[in-house]
Amino acid sequence: MSWRPQYRSSKFRNVYGKVASREHCFDGIPITKNVHDNHFCAVNARFLAIVTESAGGGSFLVIPLEQTGRIEPNYPKVCGHQGNVLDIKWNPFIENIIASCSEDTSVRIWEIPEGGLKRNMTEAVLELYGHSRRVGLVEWHPTTNNILFSAGYDYKVLIWNLDIGEPVKMIDCHTDVILCMSFNTDGSLLATTCKDKKLRVVEPRSGRVLQEASCKNHRVNRVVFLGSTKRLLTTGVSRWNTRQIALWDQEDLSMPLIEEEIDGLSGLLFPFYDADTHMLYLAGKGDGNIRYYEIGSEKPYLSYLMEFRSPAPQKGLGVMPKHGLDVSACEVFRFYKLITLKGLIEPISMIVPRRSETYQEDIYPMTPGTEPALTPDEWLSGVNRDPILMSLKEGYKKTSKIVFKAPVREKKSVVVNGIDLLENVPPRTENELLRMFFRQQDEIRRLKDELAQKDIRIRQLQLELKNLRNSPKNN
């Protein structure tokens, strides 16, 4: 019998990327030049938020999605942080609430007015202090309202209950900086990657590490739960410094199910997973292309589909939630690409080519909606519940009726697990001490220059006074 190649049918094999026209992009934005490995961009069905380059603290823009085109240089900003903003995330259930974290060790919650900002916003509705060093990551719980996770350079993950404005749990199992956090579908498990080259699956309420992998051949950078398949996907670097992805069974991290090398480039690979279509998107920081795959339940698990190519390199990518997509155009995913060199935010729609203009139920199954499944007290007491699903055919324009109410509280010590987080500061690392030393040296040089300038000015004034006294008029 003659050998025939195995043919694999897929409704997504012809998905293509469509870049928005220039008038539907966001232009003239001073995108931050910070080298922190985050997206610096967050998007929902109403607003686009971008971390910007600014002097004297951190700030970010919040732009209504319909306000495309060129953004004025004096456009109002959210600018209450004293240090650079490192991460921003929209609340999945309240569309005008956004969380930000910064080098000033704080996490802040902001309430954006209807129609966007009319003036600079400096007052957050809630300021959260519990980390002793800068905070690099924030993540909202996927099924519970007002539960926020933050990861700091003090190697701790704090769980905040925003109903009371306090940290209620602390995950203290990491020995180095946390690089990435990802939840499973119902939020009962948290996967983390860390600079100590370990991948962990943690039960967040107890802080107990359920599974741990020491990745020596595959140095992990990013991790994402693959929906309800009980699998994880990580991106990282192989021992030969090539970019690599690995697929893991969440209940056994002793060995990856598969490892696949991508290319020899050096930029970080960001993974994005769409649980509705079982599609995985890989976008490299500093690349212009986005590869996409289909995830299967049987070997080889990962099937390459196609690649979107662009000459403009991306600094980060925002992703539109499902209920914000254009279902009439068969759009299954939408990126917002940050192009730093042009100061441009470019929407990229991933489209399934279909001739019919009717609603395509096979590519739009029921999807997690804008209603929380649990209250903070229910989740903290140990209840797990799958997200409340919605149909994109009927309810994708429905707005949430939940309103955020900030708790009134006094500033005091922050005690979690019997430890005062603001008092119990870990010892500074060698890099932090070096940074402090160089900062102090710069400040000393600046003060010396100021003194020298003042000394020169005093001598000039003395000379002018002497000339004035010796002038003929005074004689």
Automatic annotation (TrEMBL):
What SUPFAM superfamilies is this protein classified in?
WD40 repeat-like (SSF50978)
Q: Which Pfam families match?
A: DUF1899 (PF08953), WD40 (PF00400), WD40_4 (PF16300)
Tell me the SMART domains matching this sequence: DUF1899 (SM01166), DUF1900 (SM01167), WD40 (SM00320)
- The lineage's top-level taxon is Eukaryota
WD repeat residue intervals: 78-120, 128-170, 171-212
Q: Could you tell me which residue ranges the DUF1899 domain spans?
A: 5-69
**Entry's Gene Ontology molecular function annotations:** actin filament binding
Q: Which UniProt keywords apply?
A: Actin-binding, Coiled coil, Repeat, WD repeat
- List the residue ranges forming a coiled coil, or say none: 444-471
Family per record: Belongs to the WD repeat coronin family.
The entry's protein name is Coronin
Which gene is the coding source of this polypeptide chain? Coro2b
